[in-house]
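Dear Dr. L.,

I hope this message finds you well. Following up on our conversation about the binding site, I have prepared a predicted three-dimensional model of the protein together with nicotinamide-adenine-dinucleotide. For your records, I am including the exact sequence and ligand specification that went into the calculation, followed by the C-alpha cells. Please feel free to forward this to your student if that is useful.
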Amino acid sequence: ARPVRAPRGVELHCKGWRQEAALRMLCNNLDPECGERPDDLVVYGGTGRAARNWECFDAIVRSLLELEDDETLLVQSGKPVGILKTHPWSPRVLIANSNLVPRWADWEHFHELERKGLTMYGQMTAGSWIYIGTQGILQGTYETLASLARQHWGGNLAGRIVVSGGLGGMGGAQPLAVTLNEGVLVCVEVDRARIERRLRTRYLDAMTEDIGEAIRMAGTAAEQKRPLSVGLLGNTAEVLPEMVRMGFIPDVVTDQTSAHDELNGYVPAGVSCEQAAVLRSSDPGRYVEMALDSMAVHCRAVLDMKARGAVAFDYGNNLRAQALKRGVENAFDYPGFVPAYIRPLFCEGEGPFRWVALSGDPEDIAVTDRALMEAFPYKERMVRWLTMAEEKVSHMGLPARICWLGYGEREKAGLIFNDLVRRGRVKAPVVIGRDHLDCGSVASPNRETEGMRDGSDIVADWAVLNALVNVASGASWVAYHDGGGVGIGYALHAGQVTVVDGTDEAGLRAATVLRNDPAMGIIRHADAAYGRAVEVARERAIRIPMINRFT
Amino acid sequence: ARPVRAPRGVELHCKGWRQEAALRMLCNNLDPECGERPDDLVVYGGTGRAARNWECFDAIVRSLLELEDDETLLVQSGKPVGILKTHPWSPRVLIANSNLVPRWADWEHFHELERKGLTMYGQMTAGSWIYIGTQGILQGTYETLASLARQHWGGNLAGRIVVSGGLGGMGGAQPLAVTLNEGVLVCVEVDRARIERRLRTRYLDAMTEDIGEAIRMAGTAAEQKRPLSVGLLGNTAEVLPEMVRMGFIPDVVTDQTSAHDELNGYVPAGVSCEQAAVLRSSDPGRYVEMALDSMAVHCRAVLDMKARGAVAFDYGNNLRAQALKRGVENAFDYPGFVPAYIRPLFCEGEGPFRWVALSGDPEDIAVTDRALMEAFPYKERMVRWLTMAEEKVSHMGLPARICWLGYGEREKAGLIFNDLVRRGRVKAPVVIGRDHLDCGSVASPNRETEGMRDGSDIVADWAVLNALVNVASGASWVAYHDGGGVGIGYALHAGQVTVVDGTDEAGLRAATVLRNDPAMGIIRHADAAYGRAVEVARERAIRIPMINRFT
Ligand SMILES: NC(=O)c1ccc[n+]([C@@H]2O[C@H](COP(=O)([O-])OP(=O)(O)OC[C@H]3O[C@@H](n4cnc5c(N)ncnc54)[C@H](O)[C@@H]3O)[C@@H](O)[C@H]2O)c1
Ligand SMILES: NC(=O)c1ccc[n+]([C@@H]2O[C@H](COP(=O)([O-])OP(=O)(O)OC[C@H]3O[C@@H](n4cnc5c(N)ncnc54)[C@H](O)[C@@H]3O)[C@@H](O)[C@H]2O)c1
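The resulting structure of the complex is given below.
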C-alpha cells in the first residue's frame, strides 16, 4: 500500500504548469478517493492503469519534475520512454497505450505482453490521466437516461424500473443517475464490497441479497413514483434469467459489468468473487470459457426482457459481441446507447467537457460552475445538472466538474476559465480535458461508431487524425489508445488535456484545441452524411473541402 | 488518361512552401515517370494510391492552393475532410490512411469499404506523397549488403561471391547492389526475358546458361577482386543443389524469387517458364505441390551452403516458412534480413533518409550529393553510393536522392540543405522525408519488428508515438498508415516530410524533426534491450528515463 495524492495549491513542483498539471492528474488518478485499486495502479474499467508499474510511476514523476517548457515526455503503455526537445507550443506529454498491430490485437496477445511487462491497459482516461472519479460517468449516465426518458416517456423515469448489473468504477454511477431522473434501479453486483462502498458514498440507497425482496422494494417505490436504488448481491447471469422466469420484466434493462474483459472483468455464474480470484490465476483458460458462457446466458435474458416489452440497450461493455461469440445470433437486436441516445449530440460537436481545479479548493469549481451558468443561461439541461451537481456530487480527489458542451461553447468556456485564473477568481490553474468517448475522437464499431449512416463504423482514420490535430493545436498532453470499455482490438481513440494558467498563450492554445477537437466531431459526422452535422458545419463555418466552401 | 506532373521552379502556386511542397509531391507521385498506374492513382506496391479518386485529388489540390500558413488540411484515406486553423509551427497536412479498428482490419473488410468509396490503400509512401521511384529498392538492397559486408568482412564484398535467385521487379536490383559493394553475384533466374531486360538497363553485366561457366566467371572475378554480376538461366531448386554437389560454396546465399506466392511467384524444378504458365492454369493444385516441393529442395541447398560456411539470409520472400510446411524443420536456422542486417543500423538511428529538389533541376541533387560527401567524408558506404547513384541512377519525376543516415547525421543534413537553399546554391526549396520503413516508425512483426529481443514485435505504441512526435516537432506533413508491403492488419507505420526553404524557422523545424524522428528508433531499440542502442543513447545524450539520466 502506497497512498498517492496530488499536490494542491499554487506552488509549482515542476518547471511549468503543464508539467505540474500532468503530475497532479497522474497522482490524482491514483488517489484512493478517486481510483479503484490504486495499490495496483488500477484507476477504473477492469484493469485501466495510470502507469505500468510503480517503478514506471516513479520514473514518470521524476521525468515530469525535470521536464522543461520546450520538452516532451513520451509514455509508451504507462512507461516513460523518452524526453525530447520539441518546442513551447507542442504538448508536454505524448501517450500511446495498449496499441498492438491489428492482426494480433486481442486479449490473448495483450495478456502475454502484459505478463512480460511490455504493455498495460490504458482504458480511456486511466492511462491518459484525466479520470475524475465517478462524476464523469454519473453525468454521462444521467444524460443518457434523460434522453431515453424523453424518447419513451416524455421526460423522466418516475414510476419506471431499471435493471442493470455492475457497481464498479463506472457502473457505480447508475444508482444516482437513475434516481436523479426520478426512477427506480435494481442493480445486480457480485462483489459485496462494491455495494457497500456505494452505500457509504450515498450513491446507492439500499442493499439486499434476496431477489424477491429487491423486486418488491422496486415495485413499491415505482408505484409511489418514489426514486430508489437497490444493490442486489448476485450474479447477472443468474439473477436476470431468474427474473424472467419469475415473470418480472423491468421497464428498462442494460448492463455495466466489465463484460469487455472476459478474464478480469466478468465473474462467471456459480462462482463467488473470491473463488473467481483464485480460478482466474490457477486456470485462466477455463475461467474465460466459463465467463463467456455466462455472458451468453446473461445476454439471452436481456433479449427475453426486451421481447416482453423492456427497453433494452447496451451500455458499451461489449456484452453483445461476447455473447455472439457464444452463438447468441440475435445479440445485436438491441442497440448501443450511442446510436440510440448520444449521436444526435455528437452532430452538434457536443461531448463530455470536463475540468479540474489544481488548487484543490472545491470553491474554485463552484466559481467555474457559476461562470458557465452565467455564460450559457439558455442551456437548461446544463444549468439543471450543474445546480444538482454542486449540491449532491461530492468531490473525489481534486475538485472537478463535467458537463456536455458543444462546438463553440467549449472554446468559450476555456477562455472564461483562463480569465478566471488570470483575475485570481480561482486560486490556481485549471485543467480542461474530456473522455475519449467524444464526437470526433473514437472509432468503436460496437459503441461510439455503431451503425454509422454511411457504413464507416470500422474506419479508424478519424481517431488518428484527432490525436494528430490535438498535438498540432497545442494541447498540454495527448493520448492514443487501443481498447477502453469494449476491449483490446475493438476501439481506437484519442484524448487531449489542456491547462489554462491565465496567460495569453495558454488561452490561445486552449481556444485552438477546444475549437478543433469538437470540430472533428462535426466533420466526421458530416462526412458520414448526418444532415445536422452538415448544417452545423455550414452555420459555424467549419471548412469541409468536399462539402462546403467559405471563400 | 490524365497526365499529372509536378510544377517545377521557384514560383509559388500556394501561400507557402510547405503547402507548395505537398502539392508538388502529390503530383509527383502520379507522374507517369514515377508512379505505376497513375490513371488509377496507383503509385506502387499493388494498389498504393496518392488520393482516393480524381474528385478527391482535385479537392486536395484546391485545398492546398488556398491553405494559409497557420492552417492544417486533414486527409482521411486520400480524401480531404477538413481545414482547421492551427498555428505556424504545426504541420500543414495531417494524413491517416487505411486505418481500421483492429478486430476488422483485414483485406475483406478493407475491400468492402473501398468498394463503398470510404477508404483507399495508402501503402507507405504512396498516400503520404513521398515516393521517389525505384531508386529506393536499389539503395535498400545496397545498404543491406553493405551492412552484411561490414559485419562479416569489415566493409565491402570485394572478392566475395553472392548466389541468389530472381531478377524480377525488386530482385532485379540485386546485381547492381552487389557490384556497387564491389562483389560478385551469380543470380539464378528462370525467365530469359528478365535476364535480358536487366542486361539492357545495364544493371546486370553478363549472362550464361551454363552453371560451370557461371562459377568460373565468378571465381575469376572474385580472385581479381573485380565486381561482376552474372545472370544464370536456370531454376534455383536445381542450380543450388547442383552447386553444392559440385562443391561450390559461395560466400553469401540469399533469394528473391517470389516464393511467398506458390502459385504465381515460384517456378518448380524441371519446368520451363512457358510450361509453368500452362500448368499453372491447367492444374493449379499440382503446380502448388510441385512448387512447394521445389522450395524445400531449394531451402535445403541454402542450409547446406550455410553448413559449409556460407552466410545465409532470407530477403523477406517467405521461402523459410514455405519449406517448413514441407518438413524442412531447420528452415529458420538462417535469419531474416531485418534482424540480421538492418536492425543493427536501426540501433544507430539509421534509416532511409530521402530528399527531392522542388526546382526540378537534377543539378540541385548533384549539389546536395556533393554537400553530403563533404560533410560526411568518413561515411564510406554513403560516399560510394552517392558517387555511383549520380552516375547510374536516372531520375524519375522530380529529381530525388536516397541514402541511409543515422542519428545526428539526418539533422545535420537537413541544416546543410536549408543552408544551400538560403545561399541560392540550390534553386528552390528541398523536401526531406523518408520511407515508413524506418528505425522508430513502424510496427510490423513479419518484417521490421520480426524477432525483437524482448518479444515486443507486435507492440504498436511506437508507431503512434512517432507520428505524434513528428507533429509535435514541426514536420510539414505527417502520415499514419495501416498496411504497406505486408498487407492490411499486418503493420502500422508513420511518415514525416519536412520542407526547408532557407529560413531560420524552417531550419529549426527540420532540425527538430530530423533529430527526434530517428531518436525514437534508438529509444525503441534501447527499450527492447539492444545493447548498441543503449550505448548510442548514452553517447548522444538521448534521454530515456528508465535507462539513463543526464543531470
Ligand atoms: N461510456 C461507456 O460506453 C461506458 C460507460 C460506463 C460503463 N461502460 C462499460 O461498463 C463496464 C463496467 O465499467 P466499470 O468501470 O464499472 O468496470 P469495473 O470493472 O470497475 O466494474 C465491473 C463490476 O461488475 C461486477 N461484476 C462482474 N461480473 C459480474 C456478474 N457476472 N454479475 C454481477 N456483477 C458482476 C464486478 O464485481 C465489478 O464491480 C465496462 O465494460 C465499461 O467499459 C461503458
Ligand atoms: N523489403 C522486403 O521485404 C523485400 C525486398 C525485396 C524483395 N522482397 C521479396 O522478394 C521476392 C521477389 O520480389 P520481386 O518484386 O522481384 O518479385 P517478382 O515476382 O517480380 O520476381 C520474381 C522472379 O523470380 C523468378 N523465379 C521464380 N521462380 C524461380 C525459380 N524457381 N528459379 C529461378 N527464378 C525463379 C521469376 O521468373 C521472377 O523473375 C518477393 O517475395 C518479395 O516480397 C522483399
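In brief: The first strand of chain B starts at residue 42 and ends at 44.

With kind regards,
A. P.
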